[in-house]
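Chain A, query sequence.
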Amino acid sequence: GQLVESGGDLVQPGGSLRLSCAASGFPFSTSSMSWARQAPGKGLEWLSGIYSDGSTYYPESMKGRFTISRDNAKNTVYLQMNSLTPEDTAIYYCASGERDKKVDNLHGLDYWGRGTLVSVSC
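Chain A, predicted structure.
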């Protein structure tokens, strides 16, 4: 399987971005999908997850600003990010879990993309 993220960019504080993750080589429609990020000098942080039935989950710290969605016809998952701050600067990764693996168990997921860089700065 393969995942390719896109949409990362330099954005001003308060701005928005939509990241995309195109999937191939595995049964996307029956897989859970997750987004995570790694900021400079920090560990991997889970951001959101979506199951095959469309149900979504977020850590408390991300609720309200980030929205995950999926388009099974396009084998693509999205992350809409609003009200960005410099603390959101990181490499953003998507990951997949066949047969709806638990979205926040990052170590148990099957495939990972190479990431896309989001920089938030004036």
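The mean pLDDT is 97. The CA atoms of residues 16 and 71 lie 20 Å apart.
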